[in-house]
Amino acid sequence: MARDGKTILNGISFDLALGEILVILGPSGSGKSSLLRCLNRLESNSGGEILFEGRETRTLRITELRRKIGMVFQIPSLPPATVRENVGTGPRLHGEVLTGEDCATLLNRVGLGSTFAERQVESLSVGEKQRVALAMALANHPSVLLLDEPTSALDPTAVLTIENLIKSIHQRLNTATLLVTHDLNQALRFNATTLLLHEGRIIAKGNIQEMMRHPSDERVRRFFQGELSEANPERPPGAKK
After folding, report:
1. 207 — phi, psi (to 5°)?
2. How far apart are alpha carbons 221 and 120 in whole angstroms?
3. 146 and 39 in contact (C-beta within 8 Å)?
4. C-alpha torsion 220→148→105→160, nearest 10
5. What whole-number distance in Å separates Cα of residue 151 and Cα of residue 130?
6. Tell me: the pLDDT tens digits for 88-145?
7. Which end of the chain is more exposed for a tag (fewer CB within 10 A), N or C?
8. What is the residue range of 104's domain?
9. pLDDT at position 233, please?
10. What is the value of pTM for the model shown?
11. Is residue 160 part of a domain?
12. What backbone torsions phi and psi does residue 145 show, to the nearest 5 degrees?
């Protein structure tokens, strides 16, 4: 993948299976968010293939792809409406109606009571909005969840709450979950298979604790020492860093 003549992602290759959590780490500008955006076709990959259930994602209708591959962003962006109207957005796009019972089930699944259904999203805290964003993704019954630094805007207590929700949802629904984070401690708490990106390439893959104990090269050691940085921005112009 290239942007403005610069290569953002190069030689990326990995598999993600149902029931697996994969964590993506890397310094700012390493391509973490761009990778997720390619997987959901918010950005186009200029080369290579991205396969979902054996099919190239560019052969799928975009609405169908995004129904099966849900995405939650760093900052929840919800249109001014009730929580129920927001959660029902995905089903409405496919000609379906989210019943009150279905909405209550989804809200309970993300740790919000059914009484939140008729609340205006403007009245919610950032942490509550992020839970609504999770419920919106789950309303489409996705096979894959892409989580782009979903706790970076939250206070420490809310961070742990959302982490526990992600783990609970993952275990209950057996989704394939891909989590981008800049927080090393968060990656350690998930203790999952981890990809470490640098300059748009995977420089290490495996259990994060093993990576830390036995870094495969100097770049990996420097990352865990907080000494590895990037010069190139990974986000599109105007996007929040």
Report:
1. -70, 130
2. 47
3. yes
4. 50
5. 8
6. 999 998 899 999 999 999 999 999 989 999 999 999 999 999 999 999 999 999 999 9
7. C
8. 2-224
9. 39
10. 0.89
11. yes
12. -115, 125
How many angstroms separate the first and last alpha carbons of the chain? 20
In a domain, 236, yes or no: no
Backbone angles phi, psi at 70, to 5 degrees: -80, 155
Cα 144 from Cα 161, distance rounded (Å): 21
Pull the structure tokens for residue 196. 């470490």
Give me the count of residues in the chain: 241
CA-to-CA dists, residue 206 to 18, 225, 239, angstroms: 18, 18, 30
Joined tokens for residue 23: 């964590």
* Token pair recorded at residue 56: 């190239």
Asked whether residue 150 is domain-assigned, the answer is yes
Gap between the Cα atoms of 229 and 40, Å rounded: 26
- Residue from 14, 6, 4 nearest 197 by CA: 14
pLDDT digits (tens, 9 = 90+) for 30-74: 999 999 999 999 998 888 899 999 999 999 999 999 999 999 999
| Residue at 96 is within a domain | yes
The Cα 59–Cα 80 span in angstroms is: 33
User: Nearest-5° angle of CA 26, CA 239, CA 179?
Assistant: 40
**pLDDT of 183-200, one tens digit each?**
999 999 999 999 999 999
Domain count, the chain: 1
In this structure, what CATH number is given to the domain that contains residue 114? 3.40.50.300
The angle, 0 to 180 degrees and rounded to 10, between the axes of the packed helices 156-173 and 126-138 is 10
**Could you give the CA distance from residue 76 to residue 38 in angstroms, rounded to a whole number?**
19
